[in-house]
Amino acid sequence: MMKIYDEVIKEEKKLMNTDGAALPPISLKVSENDCAGDMFWPEDDENTIIFRSDMAYELGGGTLPAISSQTLTEDKELVPDDGILLYGPDLNQLSKDTPYAKLIYLRVKGAALGEGDALYHAIRKIDYTKYHVHPHGYMSRISSANHREPVRISKAALSDGLSFEKIGNTYLNAYKKHPQVEAVQIVFITDPTFHFKALEKQCLKAEQITGALDHILKDLKMDCHTCNLKEVCDEVEGLRELHFQTQR
Amino acid sequence: MEHKTTMIAVAGKGGVGKTSLAAVMVKLLVEAYPDKKILAIDADPAVGLSTALGIEVKTTIDDIRKKVVAQAEDGNAKAAIELLGEARYEIFDALVEQDGFSFIAVGRPEAAGCYCKVNSYLKEVISILSNNYDYVVIDGEAGIEQINRRVMEKVTHLLLITDSSKKGCQVIQTIKEVADDLVMYEKVGAIANRIPDMNVKQYMDTGDIPVLSYILSDASLAEFDLKGKSVFHLDADTLIVQGAKEALENIAILNKSE
Fold first, then answer.
1. Most trustworthy range by pLDDT among A204-208, A209-213, B110-114
2. 3-class secondary-structure state, position A19
C-alpha cells in the first residue's frame, strides 16, 4: 500500500547518484546505542533562539534553497537500513550561508499505519517529529506554507563539536521512536553545486501527495476533471485507486 | 538553574512620555550591560518606540498574526503545530536585531476598535521570546487594557508613568490596583515626568506607589521628538536620561552610581 512516495524517492535518489551531485556522499556513523556516549548531543528548549550575533551562518539563509522533506516506503531496496549521508561540506567546514537540504526517508510497516483517516494522521504525526527535535546550537525555522526550513548554526556549538553526524543521530533517534518506523535514512546536502531546483520539485511533489491523501480521505471532490490535484493523481501510482477504494 | 528575565513594563495615561522613557531605559540598559541580551517591545499600537530607538520597522506582530490567520483559513487545513511553526518562522522576520538589543513592534490592527486578538498573540510572542533575554522593556499602550488581558502577566518590574495632573496620578493607581491581581510583578514604582517645577511634588498623590524619580519638562527632548532623532544621541546629562537612570537605580535594575 505504501507505494505512493516510491517514484519521488527514486527520482531523488537518481538526482543524488548520477545527475545532481558532483561528489559522492560521505556516510556518517549511526549510533547503535540511542545516541549515548560520544554520539550524545544535548537538545535545547523549543523556544531557544540563536541570535544573529551568536550565529556562525545560516543553512538555507536569505533566499538560498532551504529544503526539507519526508517520504515513506515499505520497499527495503529504497531504504535498506538506518543511515546518514552527507553531500558537501560538514558544519565545521562551512563559514557562510549555504544552500541546504535535509531529506528524511522512512521505511515503515505499512499495515501498522492504518487505513483511511488513520493513515493520513499517522503520516502527519511522523512528519511533525521535525517540530520536536531541537539539537543544541541548531535552530531550525519551519514554514510549511513557504516549504522552507532554514537553520541557524551557533558559533559556540560549532566549537563544541556540532556536526551532521550528531544532528543526524538526534533526528534518527527521534524518528525511530515511532513504532511503525523500521529504518531511517537521513540525507544532508550542503554542496552548492547540487541540483537543488530539481530536488525542490520532487520534495514539493511529496508534499502534494500527502496533501492529496488528506483531500482524498475527506472526499472533498469526486470529479477528477474539476479537481486541482488531478495532476498529482495522474502521476502518482496508487493515489486515484486509493480514492475510489475509499468511496466504495 | 532556570534563567531569570527582568521584564520591565512601562504603563500610564496617554501623553505622559511613556515611549521616550522606555526608549531611554533601553539606552541605559544597553550602555550598562553590553554583554546582556536586551529586548525592546513596542506594545503600543500608537507606534513610537521604533522612531525613538532609531529603528525602521518592516514587519509587526500584527502582520504575522494576519498571515498565520490567513493560512489557517485558506482551505488547506493546517494543524496547530504547523501554524505555530509558521508563527515562529515569521517572528524572526519581525525581530530587528541591532547592536546591543533586539526590537519587535506589535503594530496597528487595521480594523477599528478591538485589539484583543493582537494582544492575545502579543502575550504568546512575549512568552516565546522573553526567556532568551536578560532584560525585556515593554512600552505598553495607554490605560489598563493590556494589564486586563494579562499581556503583562510575567512582568517583574512595573513602572507607572504620570505627569503632574490629578488624572495621571489616578490612572497609575487604577493600573496598580488591576495589576495587583493580574501581574506577577516583584516591584512597582512611579515616575513623575514632564512636571513644570519641583514644587508640584507636594500636590501629587500617587497613593501607595513609591515615586522613583521626578523629571522636569525637558525642552531638548521635545526637539529630539520633533526631529525624530534616536534617544541614543541624547547626552547623559539630559534631564530625562538622568531621571530614568535614577528610577532604574531606585528599583534596583541599575547599580547605584558612585
1. A204-208
2. helix
> What is the architecture, at CATH level 2, of domain A21-192?
2-Layer Sandwich (3.30)
Of A52, A124, A145, the CB nearest to B71: A145
Residues 6+ apart with CB under 8 A from A220: none
Residues of A in contact with B69 (CB under 8 A): none
Of B79, B89, B97, nearest to A141 by CB-CB distance is B89
Direct distance between the N- and C-terminal alpha carbons of chain B, in angstroms, rounded to an integer: 31
How far apart CA B23 and CA B8 sit, in angstroms, is: 12
pLDDT digits (tens, 9 = 90+) for B167-194: 999 999 999 998 898 888 899 999 999 9
CA distance B222 to A57: 42
Q: In chain B, where are the structural domains located?
A: 8-250
Residue A189's alpha-carbon distances to A30, A63, A101, A174, B111, in angstroms, are 17, 16, 5, 20, 45
Fold designation for B8-250: Rossmann fold (3.40.50)
Alpha-carbon torsion angle A164, A166, A167, A169, nearest 10: 110
> How buried is residue B225: exposed, middle or buried, by Cβ count under 10 Å (0-12/13-18/19+)?
middle
Mean pLDDT taken over chain A: 87
Answer yes or no: are the C-beta atoms of A151 and B101 closer than 8 Å: no
**Rounded distance, CA B123 to CA B101, Å?**
20
Rounded to the nearest 5 percent, the helix, strand and coil shares of chain A are: 40, 20, 40
> Using a CB-CB distance cutoff of 8 angstroms, which residues of chain B are in contact with residue A49?
129, 132
Contacts of B127 in chain A (CB under 8 A): 47
d(CA B53, CA B56): 9
Return the domain boundaries, chain A: 21-192
- The helix/strand/coil state of A222 is coil
Q: Which residues of A touch B102 (CB under 8 A)?
A: 51
Whole-number Cα distances in Å, B131 to A136, A139, A155, B184, B242? 16, 15, 20, 16, 29
Residue B13 near residue B142, CB atoms below 8 Å: yes
Mean pLDDT over the full length of chain B:
85
Residue with cell 532551504: A66
| Average pLDDT of the segment spanning A22-41 | 78
Taking an 8 Å cut-off on Cβ atoms, the answer to whether B79 and A124 are in contact is yes
CB B177 within 8 Å of CB B46: no
Residue B134 has pLDDT above 90, yes or no: yes
User: Count of alpha carbons within 13 Å of B257, Cβ hemisphere only?
Assistant: 9
Within an 8 Å CB–CB cutoff, is residue A116 touching chain B? Answer: no
Q: Which of B97, B127, B131 sits opposite A52 (nearest CB)?
A: B97
Residue of chain B whose Cα is closest to the Cα of A146: B86
